[in-house]
Amino acid sequence: MRADARRNYDHIVATARVVFAEDGPEASLNEVARRAQVGPGTLYRHFPTRQALLVAVFRERIDRLCALADELAAEPGGDGGAGEAMGAGGCL
């Protein structure tokens, strides 16, 4: 993916996370595009369906949670079992 396309993708996902948190999963995709300052065509090029955008938002959050679990697991005795729990879920 080109660098500008990747920036758009990441920015749309970050914006969608905020819009969905405020308005729920049925929030207007045109509102997501408007707030991300991209055209609707750009949004739909990356995410052809609402479900695709929701999956990307959830995946980004899960990836961040897994990265945090990895950090906690790397600390000696500092994860309180979180590393094992997340490892069972496929994060580690």
From TrEMBL:
InterPro entries the record matches: Homeodomain-like_sf, HTH-type_TetR-like_transc_reg, HTH_TetR
A molecular function GO annotation: transcription cis-regulatory region binding
The keyword Transcription regulation appears for this protein: yes
Entry keyword set: DNA-binding, Transcription, Transcription regulation
Pfam family, one: TetR_N
Coiled coil: none
Superkingdom of the organism of origin: Bacteria
Positions of the HTH tetR-type domain: 6-65
Signal peptide interval: none
DNA-binding region per Swiss-Prot/TrEMBL record: 28-47
Name of the protein in question: Helix-turn-helix transcriptional regulator
Organism: Nonomuraea zeae
